[in-house]
Design goal:
Elements (H helix, E strand, L loop, with lengths): L1 E3 L3 E6 L4 E9 L3 E6 L5 E6 L5 E6 L2 E5 L4 E5 L3 E8 L8 E7 L2 E6 L8 E7 L12 E5 L6 E4 L3 E6 L9 E5 L5 E5 L9 E4 L2 E4 L9 E7 L10 E7 L19 E4 L4 E5 L11 E3 L4 E6 L6 E6 L3 E6 L4 E7 L13 E4 L2 E6 L4 E6 L5 E7 L6 E3 L14
Antiparallel strand pairs: 1-2, 1-33, 2-3, 4-5, 5-6, 6-9, 7-8, 10-11, 11-12, 12-13, 14-15, 15-16, 16-17, 18-19, 19-20, 20-21, 22-23, 23-24, 25-26, 26-27, 27-28, 29-30, 30-31, 31-32
């Protein structure tokens, strides 16, 4: 796992909780860390003077030979290859989306001057110093995202409203040519999920109405521009809206925060969400993640210090365990992640992170003491599809 604060990152071995030899990195102005979908590479957002995405090779990966897998182990390495905002006339590295063998890196730019730029890398380029070269897409500056989609396409948010507010999406092929556009379909767009042929995007309400934007891929459409179909999944009545999702490739639902003390379940094929899709929590939530190994459970941390396991199919809490003292969801917040049958949780107030055995009543199986309160964490993991081959 990769853990750190704003100016340092540390790579730990989950198996024994030790710091990997030589794997401490001094990088100023780190604003985010994520991993590629195959779990090998870390992506590091650097603001400040850097304005770039950097990459860390964990040195651990799995070679899938269909009937068996090979675990490969090497020394971790902070790559010299990077994606720099200055090369694209922009900055503010933000959302990273890794799926379908590609990594989409989004620079927000500035709403008044610098453009928003999405840089689309082949995952294989991280092993070859940037080859094949990435494709870049440009729009008005905004806090947005780019989502790799079917047939090597990309769904990119756009800001074409007053003050460059986020308004919808445009769709591009693998060469950067536009093949579809829904530029006014999703005011305030933020958050995404990808479930089967459906791509879900959270939208604000307008005049009290609104919902999730659903874009569905139809591979049988003759013309490329007709292969993506727009629809809306209407919100329940009220003032709330969705701005983030959690999802899992083996789950038919996406889930999202609904206000501060509830979660909402989204069926991607539905026309509307109802009150039955809302799950009220005993306290304010401050972190959530789908259970990594099977996606049947949602993990939710609440400010009373409890971690709740939610059966997504039945949409009910089936267990709760206290994992930290009560806290306020402000300032440096806990980070919750899952891999295998375990949850990993940073506890900034205690300057540590803990491992929680989800299959044994939430037992805390190890605690790793850190020199500084942890701000960020991401896990290097093999894909869920390889879990049955053993925990690597």
């Amino acid at each position: 796992m990769l853990v750190g604060d704003a100016d340092s990152l540390w790579l730990y071995n989950i198996a024994d909780g030790t710091l990997v030899a030589g794997a401490s990195y001094e990088i100023a102005d780190v604003s985010g860390v994520t991993t590629t979908e195959d779990g090998r590479f870390g992506v590091i957002n650097v603001r400040g003077d850097g304005q770039q995405f950097r990459f860390l090779d964990s040195g651990v990966w799995v070679l899938d030979h269909v009937d068996h897998v090979h675990l490969e182990v090497d020394d971790p390495e902070l790559l010299t290859f990077s994606i720099n905002g200055s090369d694209h006339g922009t900055g503010r590295p933000a959302h990273v989306v890794s799926r379908d063998g590609r990594v989409a890196l989004f620079f927000d730019g500035d709403a008044e001057t610098d453009p928003a730029v999405a840089v689309i890398l082949r995952r294989s380029a991280l092993e070859s110093g940037g080859n094949p070269p990435p494709v870049s897409l440009t729009g008005n500056g905004h806090h947005g995202l780019a989502l790799p989609a079917a047939e090597d396409t990309v769904i990119m948010s756009v800001a074409e409203g007053e003050g460059r507010a986020r308004t919808g999406v445009r769709i591009y092929d693998d060469g950067g040519a536009e093949i579809g556009a829904f530029p006014q379909s999703c005011p305030g767009l933020h958050g995404y999920a990808a479930i089967g042929p459906h791509y879900l995007l959270g939208c604000h309400r307008t005049d009290g109405a609104g919902g999730v934007l659903r874009i569905t891929h139809d591979p049988d459409a003759v013309h490329p521009g007709d292969r993506f179909i727009e629809a809306q999944i209407t919100y329940p009545e009220g003032a709330l809206h969705i701005s983030n999702f959690a999802y899992h490739p083996e789950s038919p639902w996406a889930v999202a925060p609904w206000g501060t003390e509830a979660m909402i379940r989204v069926n991607p094929t539905a026309d509307a969400l109802s009150e039955d899709d809302i799950l009220n929590l005993p306290a304010r939530q401050c972190g959530y993640a789908m259970r990594d190994d099977h996606g049947q459970d949602l993990l939710v941390l609440t400010v009373d210090g409890f971690l709740h396991s939610v059966d997504v199919a039945n949409w009910a809490v089936h267990s709760s365990m206290q994992v930290m003292t009560p806290f306020e969801c402000a300032g440096t917040r806990p980070v919750l992640r899952s891999v295998g049958g375990f949850a990993y949780l940073t506890r900034p107030a205690d300057s540590d992170l803990i491992e929680i055995d989800l299959d044994h009543d939430g037992e805390i199986t190890q605690a790793i003491e850190l020199t500084e309160p942890p701000v960020r964490m991401t896990l290097f993991r093999h894909p869920a599809s390889l879990v049955d081959y053993g925990d690597h």
